[in-house]
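Running this now, will post back.
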Amino acid sequence: MEGAYVKNGRTILTGKNLSKQFNGNIVLEDVSITCREGSAIALVGENGAGKSTLMNMISGGLQPSDGTIELDGKAVSFRSSVDAREKGIAFAHQELSLMEEMTVGENIMLGREPGKGIWIDQKKLHEQAKEILQEIGYEMDVYAMVCDLSPAECQITEIAKAWSSNPRIFIFDEPTSSLNKEESEILFGFIKKILERNISVIMISHRMEDIYKTCDQVVVLKDGRFVFEAPLSETTEELLISKMVGRDFKNVYPERRKDKAERIKVSIRNGAVGTRVRGINIDVPEGTIVGIGGLEGQGQRELSRALFGLARFTGGDYFIDGKKVKIHSPADAIRHKISFVPEDRKSEGLCLALSVRENILSMVLKKNSRFGFMNKKAEDKDTEEGIRQLGIKVGHPRMKVSRLSGGNQQKIVFSKWIKTNPEILYLNEPTRGVDVQSKLEIYALIRELTRQGVSVVIFTSDMMELIGLSDEIYIMYEGRISGQISGREATEERIMQYSAKRAHTETEGEGSESV
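Update: finished.
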């Protein structure tokens, strides 16, 4: 178990038989949890499983309808989140609790401002806030206004605000949802450091790689009830997903197509991208899912971007429907009925400053205009269809897309590209950072698109996703195809063999002509 810190420390807090009702509706029923010094609990479950409700009760934001909370062996009743924080329990929320009209430093030190009486020492306040950020591992302008921050900077500020209270128990709710890989690794290092100081951690997360890096224990909730608990070292990702969704892992993925597609939609022959990706030979049959996997950083990203014209093929030939094509830009790709869901939805897939409606319609503005005038009725229809087709959970179509969960944001990226009626769909890490329920819905959508004749290529580092979704699988190693396996015959062992070394039988070559 990579990076987990198993420790059977002294019990700090126990929640016993906790239940919560809202207007007669039971949202949490008879759930117990135990926090120990220096131990990290992963709290997982689908959306609506009761995770945030449980943590809000433990951190004083909600009062239990039934059950008891014990701190250091004594029953406690937190009057508020401030009361819980004063007793050593901090909660870094996913729904940020920041004041936009205040600075980063003022938010971090809110309620703990240095000074005398009503006078606040602003210089000292911002110095202390900077020290807190540095302790976590981040550098930020503490005088910046929160309203001017990026989503990642807001999340970091929220974490620093919680840490400023010097907690004994630190609760994180989806702490990496807005962070990039480097920022996430810094956070993991900080969590390791505080665990070594005997601070207890509870992490709500749908990112399996995160919990296996940081936690030693896992608790699974489903429909407001406790369903499973175990040391993480004794679990697998497949087991946890099965517990979360309430069915066997094998039934998570939609059924593959039974017949073999005859017509080849896309072919790459001796494709090369830059100096690293070489000798790529791939066939994508019509109406199938072709998976491209391997360890991260083996050229998958470069290849995916070249297929959509975001990077240039420097050698080889690109065929669509048997005809050689040149895809030198996304505009070229779109003209050939190609769509692309990028790896980073926040920076490349969406405009976070715009609404759900504006993002969904962004690729079909020309279709809905006539003589320079927009057809509002057609736009409304397209927006409603996109929301309904993908089950996007949104209060109003004009809500800013930045306010939605990762799963709903990803569905919007899919929706805007599906609106173009593609014949070819390239997907790069399509479910990374997405909750389990949204993953299942996206899997079903992808398979339904293939039934309609769309040819799909999915680039994924998730081995279970690769095996479960793909009709045909190619593995990349050091910029080349190291193996090809039928999806039905694929196993983790075979994929790892191809992922770890180049296949000697692979024919390498470079086309004399750039695609």
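Residues 1-6, 502-515 have pLDDT under 50 and may be disordered. More later if anyone needs it.
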